Amino acid sequence: MELEGKIALVTGAGRGIGKGIALTFAREGADVAVNDINLDTAEATASEARALGRRSMAIRADVAKQDEVNQMVERIIREWGGVDILVNNAGFGNPLMVEDMTESDWHSVLGVILDGAFYCSKAVIETMKNRGGGKIINIASLAAKKMSLGNCVAYTTSKSGILGFTRHLAFEIGPYKINVNAICPGGTLTPAVQASPVHLRLKDSNPLKDICRPEDIAEAALFLASKRSKMITGITIDVDAGEPLVSQDWEGYVKRRKEEFAKRKQAH
Q1: Active site residue 155
Q2: Where are the domains of the chain?
Q3: Residue 63, SS3?
Q4: Cα 97 from Cα 257, distance rounded (Å)
């Protein structure tokens, strides 16, 4: 097992990519702290990790709030002794165009994705130093290199920021043997994507004629969390089945977002 004896914290791990990473790490021998804003989904993932024979705790914390992040990390250190691996996975978006977004719509997305990565990384640096090194893995998105047809400008902006954050943090804490890298998933067959016909279009347009699953992203995260990547830092790995960087679906993009905005107005 590649992560035997390691302690990992995975944010946003109640479902989707985060859950896939948490369970892959547990399968490979790590004890896993499962964070999510929803305690029920976090506990469900933690229960599956424990069934694999590893320690696992579920922690409800909003990563956009620094005090909650600090309390989460302090609990892991108090109960397990430290953190060796951090995966900044928590994130979400909304399907609105800029002209229809509110200030809250904008800041809520940036808060979870960008502030969350900053707060969590800052909170684990000291314990990783004390343990002789560590691994920080930031889950960005292919949207960081193009734009998102499924999410909003705040999501694209946040994920682009994650790549800059990764490069800079890797430089700052590399001397302490802490590797910092990012993964850019393409369209991934999470429950939300599976419920939409978009996954059929993605599958047909990708060169590999397939669509990624959460476990595909998890395998890349496992590599970056393991000893095999000890000389790799400040880089980004795309896991996207070769998804094209350019889309021509402008009309469909606008139509979907205007429909969503109309629903929101009716609801209020």
Answers
A1: yes
A2: 7-267
A3: coil
A4: 6
CATH ID of 7-267, from 2.40.110.10, 2.60.40.1180, 3.40.50.720, 3.40.930.10: 3.40.50.720
Q: Which of 119, 155, 176, 253 is catalytic?
A: 155
CA proximity to 101, closest of 219, 268, 247, 261: 261
Which residues, 6+ apart, have CB-to-CB distance to 149 below 8 Å? 198, 247, 249, 252, 253
Rg for the chain, CA atoms, rounded: 18
The tens digit of pLDDT for each residue in 78-125 reads 999 999 999 999 999 888 889 999 999 999 999 999 999 999 999 999
* Mode of pairing for the β-strands spanning 236-239 and 178-185: parallel
* DSSP 3-state percent helix, strand, coil across the chain (nearest 5): 55, 15, 30
Q: State pLDDT tens for residues 201-232.
A: 677 777 888 888 999 999 999 999 999 999 99
- Listing from the earlier edge strand, what are the strands of the sheet with 56-60? 56-60, 31-36, 7-10, 85-88, 134-139, 178-185, 236-239
